[in-house]
Write a structure and sequence with these properties.
Blueprint: H1 11-38, H2 44-53, H3 57-84, H4 92-116
Helix pairs in contact: 1-3, 3-4
Amino acid sequence: MRVIKHYRIHTGTFAWILHRLSGLGLIFYLLVHIWVISHLSGGEGSFDGIMNFFANPFARLLEVGLVGVILYHLFNGLRITLVDMGVMVEKQKTLYAAAVVVWLASWIAVGAVMISRMGSPLHG
């Protein structure tokens, strides 16, 4: 059996890895979201307590990161769907580059709005 001494990560491999990691991140977020929502059954005080915990600046920055993960998964998923339908199969690298540009532009725009509102109260 031959030992692999050097492995080069190509664009497609990188896109595949990031798509899987973003999907895992979304699953993790969904579990945390369900846990937070479950505090509603503990009454208003329980839910308000957990919401106050997540109102800190670090948690709010994590929300900006979450938006980035969602947008990456969205635009790369659209790229994958197009390729699976036979659109631009021979131009996958170009399509991935376009998806990354749209992802970053969207994330920067939405993230800037979110960061500009961080000083605002959570409700209001």
